[in-house]
Amino acid sequence: MNDKTDANICPIGIFDSGLGGLCAVREALDALPGEHIIYFGDSGRVPYGSRSYDTIQKYARQAINFLVAKGVKIILVACGTVSSVALDYLRGAFPALPIIGVVEPACEKAVKIARETSNSKIGVIGTQATIAKGAYEKYIAALDPDFEVYGKACPLFVTLVENGHIDSDPITKLAAEYYLAEFRDLHLGSLVLGCTHYPFIKNTIGEIVETELIDVGAEAVHRLAGEIEARKLANSPGKKGALEVYISDETQGFSRIASNFLGFDIGDSVKKIDIEKF
Question: Whole-angstrom Cα distance, residue 233 to residue 255?
Answer without folding.
Answer: 30
